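Below sits the subject:
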Amino acid sequence: MKPEKPSANVPPIPRLIMKNTIFFALAQALQGVGMQLAVTFSAIMIIRILGNASLAGLGGGILGVSRFAVAYPMGKLTDTYGRKPGMLIGLLMTTSGALTLGFCMTVLSFPLFVIGILILGLGVGAVMQLRVAAADMYPVSRRAEGLGYVLTGSVLGAFGAPILVALGEALSNTYEYDPITISWGITPVVLFPALLFILLVRPDPKYIAMNLGEFWEGETGEKNGTPKGPESNAGLKKFLKDRNKQVAFSCYGAAQGTMAMMMVMTPLVLSESGYSLSSISLTVSLHVFGMFAFSVPMGRLTDRLGRKPVLGAGVILVAVGSVLVPVTDQYWVITFGLFIIGLGWSGTNVASTSLIADTSEPEERGRAIGTNDSVASAFSILTPLVGGVVVEYLGLVAVGILGGAIMIVPLVLYPRLKERSPGVYV
């Protein structure tokens, strides 16, 4: 698929598209709380349950496994039935995982921890179809910008996790429960409104993608859901052989894997340095702020300059942040390094998602972006586990060096991306 060159004339966003975008942004804001709690608590929970740090990265590894397992099947489901069902299923799984994780701390059960983090990861992976839905609703000339609007919703939720943690700590003094247990227990209260926002979206974004002319003046789409090519041609083999997608997969995968490792390991080091749960949660939230706060300007930059330069800049930022985190044990230096990693990830996320959407038909887009998530999850499975062992025996400095080295991987494939102009490929 070769999108037409974007027009210099930028029309206003149609009212219905903007309304749906706001609903998705609000859902994005609320659903991110579960993932933030998992990042903040997983290593600490394992240490409390097992009594040692050698498996501290296991939680991040399990999250990677579950997201790997669900990404492509959920993409196929949304390609078949629409984007909304996949996101609703994901939110229900996230809620179930949060409740299970809260209960596991009450009984200090490692098997329950594994089950809970697995279910939570499946839910988070399923809700990633929000990115597909955002890409569906916008033409190529505004695609990255539209994606940026939805992703920016996470900024509103970035400080939701610290509020839940602080509330959990406050309530633990009154009810004599573990603050981690209470924080997980009240998470469903935040997730329920996200379900309502998804239900309010009309029509399904896949329909919008296939009928863009009904919503955007001067645009076209596949009328009445008629695909341009044979459905059977879409699949992993097709996506992995596409050289432009290869670059997107490698950049996003390396960035996601490095970030997953640093997000899990950094809270552990801060905890062992004597910082409170609230301080650790604030670090994670500032990292999330870097991931999402600049999504709109990042999207506009991607639409204006092209997907390739933003991908390259994102890779470099992740590498720099990974090396910066371990240079000192000072709280704000570590926090700034993690913030830089989030900013670099933002660039690779917006640019890679836009690139994949540009080069995929609507009826295969869920699977194409699901493939990207699967590749990224494969990186995320291994890196937190390796990071846990490295921290235990070599320290955080070695983890930082490893993170920077991982970002060399996409540089090998980067020259293969041939983007003639923003959203137009050779």
